[in-house]
Write a structure and sequence with these properties.
The complex is a heterodimer of chains A (62) and B (202).
Chain A lengths: L7 H4 L10 E2 L5 H7 L4 H13 L10
Chain B lengths: L10 E8 L7 H13 L3 E3 L11 H11 E7 L10 H16 L3 E6 L5 H4 L9 E2 L4 H11 E2 L7 H22 L7 H17 L4
Parallel strand pairs in B: 1-2, 1-3, 3-4, 4-5
The chains are: A mainly alpha (62), B alpha/beta (202).
């Protein structure tokens, strides 16, 4: 196959671009709220939206 | 790059999303967000950066640099032409080349189409989602992992459907027609976290 042009991307093809597997411990909700400048009141309102419409079988302790 | 670099630390949990800001893409955005919530990542999009003004390009570059991973969905071809999207992919390529602390994933709707429009990325295989939420979620679960193992695509699809049902109410609370603002999108992510918690996915 003729190479159109040399490129570091071709040299690295398959090594990481789209073929990576990135593991991370993951963040928490407090960090998420801070990332979007959301307050506790915003969180409570969103929570009401979710819990209010959650099917009974998914609500624990009720 | 002109201007002073923000020197932001790379956050392993931040994922830059380079996606079309159009209402027709909202379902896909909700799917990507559901997957990122379950994977306990923080999606970052450029609408958190003020429009225009000096230094916008530098701020986009700094935001990209602060994300360990970026995802670029180049499936929206046709009108309106979106020059920002391949441009931001180019920035991600530069960051990857300079620091090796960045990986990027390209998404497309159809196989073999990307290389016809963007031959410079020959050798880089996009993940094909076929324009479906299931496909988008699968793609993310293939490249991002959490320590205790990933949930199944079916589990994330359940979360996606729950989030999608709540999107109209969320928009109505803000009087917004779409999800593409920092405030509304941030609440969508929060909504995903609450729902995923209730469903015991996180």
């Amino acid at each position: 196959m003729a190479k159109k042009h040399s490129s570091t991307w071709r040299a690295n093809a398959g090594s990481s671009h789209g073929n990576f597997k990135h593991k991370s411990k993951g963040t928490n909700l407090k960090t998420v709220l801070a990332a979007y400048n959301l307050k506790n009141s915003d969180y409570q309102r969103v929570r009401c939206l979710v819990v209010g419409q959650l099917p009974k079988e998914l609500v624990h302790g009720r | 790059m002109a201007g002073k670099s923000g020197q932001r630390r790379v956050d392993p949990d931040q994922v830059f999303l380079n996606v079309p800001y159009s209402r027709s893409y909202e379902r896909m955005l909700v799917a990507l967000t559901a997957a990122l919530v379950v994977l306990r990542r923080i999606p970052c999009l450029t609408f958190e950066i003020p429009d225009g003004g000096q230094g916008r390009l530098q701020r986009i570059f700094d935001l990209l640099k602060s994300c360990r991973v970026s995802i670029h969905d180049l499936s929206a071809v046709g009108q309106p032409v979106r020059f920002n999207m391949p441009f931001e992919l180019g920035l991600a390529c530069v960051i990857k080349e300079q620091s090796d602390q960045h990986d990027f994933l390209i998404l497309e709707r159809k196989p073999h189409r990307l290389h016809r429009h963007l031959s410079d990325v020959g050798g880089i295989d996009p993940k094909i989602h076929h324009g479906t939420a299931n496909g988008a979620i699968c793609a993310l679960l293939e490249v991002l992992e959490r320590p205790e193992g990933n949930p199944s695509t079916a589990q994330v699809m359940k979360l996606y459907r729950r989030m999608l049902k709540l999107v109209p109410a969320l928009k109505a609370q803000h009087g917004n027609r779409d999800l593409f603002s920092m405030r509304v999108y941030g609440e969508l992510v929060t909504l995903g976290w609450v729902a995923a918690g209730e469903m015991r996915l996180i």
